Amino acid sequence: MNKMNQLYEGKAKKVFATEDAEKVIVSYKDDATALDGLKKGTIAGKGSINNRMSNYLMQLLEKQGVKTHFVEELNDNETVVKKVSIVPLEVIIRNISAGSFAKRYGVEEGIVFEKPTIEFSYKNDDLHDPLINSYHALALGLATEEEINTIKTMAFKVNEVLKEYFLNLNVKLVDFKLEFGRLTDGTIVLADEISPDTCRFWDADTNEKLDKDRFRRDMGGVEDAYQEMMRRVFGE
Ligand code: UDP
Fold it and tell me: Which are the contacts of 113, defined by CB distance < 8 A and separation ≥ 6?
């Protein structure tokens, strides 16, 4: 499969057309942004780590019955995925309080929830991705009621699979963001990526942060954290 014209360039990825109208090639970059685009930088090696880790996790999820956009890894930084129209919602699942949840509700980070939570943000850069509830998403025509129900069920299933998987690697899956897309026949599939850019990972013994928070919060050791997660997943 060959890269043709570039369709899109985002903050962390480029997307290219292919000879197959139903498939695109995603190319992961080392570029990183945070704090609504205010903070910019690069994380050496991030592109290939996120590409390979995300592909591995998508295949793990497929085996557990979660439909994803994954087709084939081409090389360290590039992957063929099914072309989707992205549902403009960021779907966030939380197992432990952190980040914007802790800030919004004035609680400390690290509270373990009895049940995971779900929330949505409206993917809209001009509006800075505001929090939105499912009724508002419906009212705005961002997704149908059936699609929202499917997305909720799939997101909690992803959490169950990944929480257990990462705990076996001595990693707490604190929270993460998912995106979903529609195939041409309307099927909802998991899209985008699952990586240290989109998940909070804490070492299960020390609570050391092994994710993008090290970049967001200028903690140093960013590359090491991404590499450590790579070692835990692939043993390298
Ligand atoms: N997240 C993401 N992209 C975003 C916002 C959040 O991937 O644009 C992920 C983030 O890495 C974390 C989870 O979603 O794992 C919850 O993030 P939160 O709402 O706490 O926002 P933050 O504190 O990162 O601004």
Answer: 94, 95, 96, 97
Alpha-carbon distances of 183 from 4, 11, 170, 202, rounded to whole Å: 20, 23, 35, 34
Counting other chains too, the contacts that 24-27 makes at CB distance below 8 Å and 24 or more residues apart are 24/80, 24/81, 24/82, 24/83, 25/1, 25/74, 25/78, 25/79, 25/80, 25/81, 26/51, 26/78, 26/79, 26/81, 27/3, 27/77, 27/78
Task: Tell me what pLDDT residue 41 has.
Answer: 97
At 236, is the pLDDT very low, low, confident or very high (cuts 50, 70, 90)? low
Q: Is the pLDDT of residue 148 over 90?
A: yes
Compute the distance between CA of residue 48 and CA of residue 99 in angstroms, rounded to an integer: 26
Pocket of ligand 1, candidates 50, 91, 177: which has the most ligand atoms within 8 Å of its Cβ, to mutate?
177
The percentage of the chain sitting over the pLDDT mark of 90, rounded to a whole number, equals 98
The residue nearest atom 19 of ligand 1, judged by CA position, is 100
Please count the CA atoms within 13 angstroms of the CA of 24 that sit on its side-chain side.
20
| Rounded Cα–Cα distance for residues 146 and 187 (Å) | 11
* Confidence category of residue 150, pLDDT binned at 50, 70, 90: very high
Identity of the amino acid at 19: E
